[in-house]
Structure formats: structure tokens, C-alpha cells
Design goal:
Blueprint lengths: L4 E5 L4 E5 L6 H17 L2 E4 L6 H8 L3 E4 L10 E4 L6 H9 L3 E4 L3 H15 L3 E5 L5 H7 L9 E3 L11 E8 L5 H12 L2 E6 L5 H13 L5 E5 L5 H12 L3 E5 L15 E6 L5 H13 L1
Parallel strand pairs: 2-13, 3-4, 3-5, 5-6, 7-8, 7-9, 9-10, 11-12, 11-13
Antiparallel strand pairs: 1-2
Helix pairs in contact: 4-5, 7-8
Length: about 290
Amino acid sequence: MKSAGRAVMMRHMELIIADPTGLCFGVKRAIENLEQALERYRHVYSFGSPIHNPQEVERLCRKGLVVVHSPEEIPVGSVSFVRAHGVSPRTMEALHEIRSRVIDGTCPFVRTAQERARALAQEGYQVVILGDENHPEVRGIVGYVESDRPPIVLSNPDDLDPRRRFDRCGVLSQTTQRESVLEELVKRLVSVSLELKVYNTICKATIARQESIVRLVPKVDGIIVIGGRNSANTGKMVEIARAAGVETQWIEHSGELDGGWLENKRSIGVAAGGSTPDWLIKELTEKLRTL
């Protein structure tokens, strides 16, 4: 059985650090590739924020990163970076058209979701994607569905039209969704589909971090989740903690910590999203130990 995490005794309360914390494999890999590119080329243009953590993006920008929101903003012949969320094939083509040297930081788990979506469409399935249609990862996956029938993107199983019927339906998920939500969507699709093909494309790192919250809940009086507010996986962790009934504080950095919230709490759990770098977690735990 996995433990809730590493416990540290302080003067007035116990601090339990969730296990795992820190950057997930896909984000860590992308950031390492980006830092190597910055050292080599000095200036790198990232199509969208390379990581959903404002403090880490600010650190990278000081090293020469330039964040843009369309290929047209990238100078011809310069170096561009595709973040871990990936991009659509059309966007990748646009980057190559401007003769950009492309460094592809797409997470392998996201790449799998992209290829699953493409394969389902090619096999003639109506593609259904569980996820936030405005999230860059989902927009990229949608771009891999080359079919006369556009993919259906659902952020919640309740969004499924119960009157819809499918001959052949293929479902996959944004990598940061909750397995329980995917299971509920599949359960509903079974009753409206003659044939259903399911790919669980939720990444293992996401599942591990969500499970770490579940293990913390019975051991603490409150949980601090540190991570960018634009981070989908961090948001899911906060949802899980609050749904379990434990007091939860969501912060991006230690400066946002509400000291008054800590009063009368004998044990505090600290958890972090997969896009939260170690240095931010360390700053938070060091601040907590001084209180």
C-alpha cells in the first residue's frame, strides 16, 4: 500500500508532503528540451505557454523564451518550440512553412491520444473526446480527426445528448481527466452505441497525483495544492480534495499562502500539480516550517 507521503513534524503541526509531487514526466521532458534549446540558440519562440505555471514561464522568459500565440508571430527561420500539450498537424505544418527549426516537446501520452484519435477517425468511428474543448491539448487532438464527422468534445458526461445514437463510436480522453468521469461517460455511451471502442488515454502521472490526494484526505485537517490556476491537472486535484470534504487552499506560489487558514490545524497536506516545479514546492514547505 502506498503511503500518503513524507511527514515532517513542525512546532505546532505535522506537514505531510504528497507522493508524488513535482513535474510529471512529460512536462519535465519538455522543459529540459526547452532549456537545452535556450542554451544553444538564446532565443526560442514557444507556440503558447510551454507550461501551465506562470512562475516557471517567467523564469524561462528571463533565459530568452518568447511566448507567441500564432505561427505568424514567429520570425522566419527562427527556433520554435511545441509545448507538452502538442499541436494539430495543421499548426505543425504552419511552423515548417516559415522554415522554423521546430523542437517538439509534445508529451508521449498526449502523442498517444493524438494517434488514437486519428486511428478511430480512419476506422470510421464517431470520435468522442472527454475534455475541455478550449484546452490546447484538446484542440490539438481534435486536429488529428480527419473525418466528415467532426469529433464531439464533452467536458462532462451530462453534456451527452441522450437522444443521440451511434452505429460506431470511439471514445478517448484528455490526459488530465479523472478516470471516474471517463468511466461514467463510457457507461452512458454503451446504451446509445451499437459498437463502442474505448481508449483510456489518461496519463499515469495524472492518476498518481489524484491518488495522492485521496491518500492525504483522511490524514490531514487541510490540504494546500500548489500549481498554476490555468493547469487542468492541478484543478482536478483541487476538485477531488474539496469533494472529499477537506478544507483546501489552492495557491500558485508561497506568497499567496493564507496564514490565518492554518490556525487550529494539527496536520496539513501539501500536494502539487504535474506542472509545478520543485523550486516552488520547496519555497512553500520552507515557509510553512517557519510559521
